[in-house]
Amino acid sequence: MGSQAAFLAEVMASDGLVATDRLATQLRITKTELAGAMGLSRDAVSKSSRLRAPSTQARLRDGVEIINRILAWSGSLPQAFAWYRAQPIPSFGDQTAEDLVKEGRAEAVKRYLSRIAVGGYA
Hints:
Number of domains: 1
Shape: globular
Largest sheet: none
Oligomer: single chain
Number of strands: 0
Protein name: XRE family transcriptional regulator
Radius of gyration: 14 Å
Distance between the termini: 23 Å
InterPro entries: Xre/MbcA/ParS-like_toxin-bd
Strand content: under 5%
Structural class: mainly alpha
Number of helices: 9
Pfam family, one: Xre_MbcA_ParS_C
Organism: Nitrospirillum viridazoti CBAmc
């Protein structure tokens, strides 16, 4: 659990917003790649007015929360992010968590992960 708390502490700014520069650094990707992985435009993660928009922050928080949940099972942040981007989820027609977040279906992914966490089936 320590690595999960450390990840959240690192990527969340003191004002409660997701710090995209720190998140990109933690994930070892560019901010442009981060925008793509979260289904956002490049401007949404680079222009401060767009970055502070509630819809942008909600999408970023969803991605961070999903990656953080996977971190406990995957063993490392790179592995958690790889799962987010590439692991097909049978319950969703083999779409990835990234695909679902891009479609605005992050809540469905979080419910799926909650079911798995308590021993449910995929």
